[in-house]
Design a protein that fits this description.
- There is one protein chain.
- The protein is an all-alpha fold.
- 73% of the residues lie in helices and 1% in strands.
- It has 18 helices and 2 strands.
- A two-stranded antiparallel ribbon has the order 1-2.
- A hairpin with a 4-residue loop joins strand 1 (61-62) and strand 2 (67-68).
- Helix 3 (70-92) packs antiparallel against helix 4 (101-120) and helix 3 (70-92) packs antiparallel against helix 9 (229-254).
- The relative contact order is 0.11.
Length: 473
């Protein structure tokens, strides 16, 4: 192994995750929240380490199976930021048993660890192992509410589809090895041929499962609805962002899709994913399921940057991933505050949002801002992200795909505003003031600042993305 020092943040995070699992055996349940604090603090330390090394050439290089470069560091920071915010949500979530707090937090860290390896991978073996680490941790997290039948059902469906996608990806990797004689993604020369193309398609299907790209999205609604809400928020963000990072590395930089005549495939996947996600969300009455289909649509928007295939498209993928974290985590935080009523599984139906503006005008207003940002309405950060990605599509001549994306954004306004209608125009069944905890409000404030600041003044974010869109090898 060479350049093992490039993985110091991952090693530190792995050690902390193992420590949390051991601590779960010895710390009394009444002190369980201490383990959540240790978990988010560990992720914050790893985030600081990665952030401080982004511009340090001494911490960049290519190892045997991985690479550390500004691009991978950017996606690692997004994953760690998402993990921190979701652990803060977990501190306020009533359904998680405190006696398993260490196990829950450790699984979140292990999943994040897999994503950090994933965005650095330049060998299909490491990429597959990273995906399995993410998947196994996510299966358990999804079914963590063992007394909730929907949680068990969602975890089982997630596992079955995950096993199928893993088998498809392993077969694709075997074909790749047969076509190239290696599992590495660099130093291939100019490979081609039907066998090589088929291997790339099967590998892409494996990625599509983790990023909830149609047609590998069927597990998403049930898994998201049944999972504990902090897990739902986590699954809707971190795995999707990390997988889009590795797709961008593989199909934009190492084996460009245009050179393998796969651009049309990505266009179809992007259009299909956006359309299925948005039009199915129109008919949902459960807000968790609605946001699940919304997250599928968001994956389609990010794919547009992959279709563009140029530097602006890569920057668009990174920029949209950043703003997506802010607006989606904010929306899920409000959903948790409203629906986590102490009953098994909570109440996340649209009717639970009736009259929210009377119970907590601040939460209702923040929810509207997050939903408008997800719709791409200016001057919020979601508009900047979509504008950047759509303009990349126009620049490269993909006018039809850009038009489809704009129309899908218009459709999304209808189901997002259904939630706003219930919050502001429906009478409240219970006018008791709704109070959320300090950690949930802390996450909400951070998300709202990201949505507002980078919507009004996006130049620092754009500059950071442009500086981070540098990849090795």
């Amino acid at each position: 192994m060479t350049h093992l020092e490039l993985l110091y943040p991952e090693m530190a995070l792995a050690a902390m995750a193992l420590g949390l699992m051991l601590a779960d055996l010895f710390i009394a349940p009444k002190h369980g929240k201490l383990l959540y604090h240790l978990a988010w603090f560990s992720a914050a330390v790893a985030l600081c380490i990665v952030g401080l090394t982004v511009t340090e050439s001494a911490y960049q290089g290519v190892g045997t199976l991985w690479t550390a470069d500004p691009m991978s560091q950017f996606f690692k920071m997004l994953v760690l930021l998402t993990t921190i915010l979701c652990l803060l949500l977990g501190l306020e979530y009533k359904q998680l048993p405190l006696r398993h707090a260490g196990t829950f937090a450790a699984l979140m860290l292990f999943s994040s660890l897999g994503m950090m390896f994933l965005v650095s991978g330049i060998d299909l073996l490491l990429i597959f192992i990273a995906l399995e680490l993410i998947s196994i941790s996510s299966f358990i997290l999804t079914g963590f509410e063992r007394k909730n039948a929907k949680s068990n059902e969602g975890a089982l469906k997630y596992f079955v589809f995950g096993a199928f996608s893993s088998a498809v990806m392993v077969y694709g990797i075997s074909l790749y090895y047969g076509a190239t004689g290696t599992t590495r993604l660099i130093g291939l020369g100019e490979p081609g041929g039907p066998l090589f193309t088929l291997s790339l398609l099967l590998i892409l299907l494996g990625f599509g499962f983790k990023a909830s790209i149609a047609p590998m999205h069927f597990w998403v609604p049930d898994a998201y609805e049944g999972a504990p809400l902090p897990v739902t928020a986590f699954l809707s963000l971190a795995p999707k962002i990390a997988t889009m990072g590795v797709i961008a590395r593989v199909f934009m930089l190492l084996i460009p899709a245009a050179q393998q005549d796969l651009t049309t495939v990505f266009m179809i996947l992007a259009g299909l994913t956006m359309t299925i996600g948005n039009f199915t969300a129109l008919f949902q009455t459960n807000v968790k399921r609605m946001l699940a289909y919304s997250s599928i649509a968001q994956a389609g928007y990010i794919l547009i940057g992959i279709v563009s295939g140029d530097a602006k498209g890569l920057e668009g993928v990174m920029l949209y991933s950043f703003v997506y974290v802010a607006m989606n985590i904010g929306a899920f935080a409000v959903v948790q505050a409203v629906g986590d009523d102490g009953t098994a599984g909570g109440n996340y139906e649209l009717s639970a949002f009736d009259g929210l503006s009377k119970r907590s005008f601040g939460l209702a207003l923040m929810m509207v801002l997050f939903l408008l940002s997800l719709s791409g309405i200016p001057p919020l950060a979601g508009f900047i992200g979509k504008f950047y990605i759509f303009s990349a599509a126009f620049k490269t001549g993909h006018y039809g795909l850009a038009v489809v994306a704009v129309l899908n954004s218009v459709v999304s306004v209808f189901y997002y505003m259904k939630i706003a209608f219930h919050m502001f125009l429906r009478p409240a069944k219970d006018e008791t003031p709704l109070l959320a905890g300090p950690y949930l409000y802390g996450g909400l404030v951070l998300a709202l600042l990201g949505v507002l600041i980078f919507g009004i003044y996006p130049e620092p974010l754009i500059a950071s993305v442009q500086a981070s869109a540098q990849a090795l090898p």
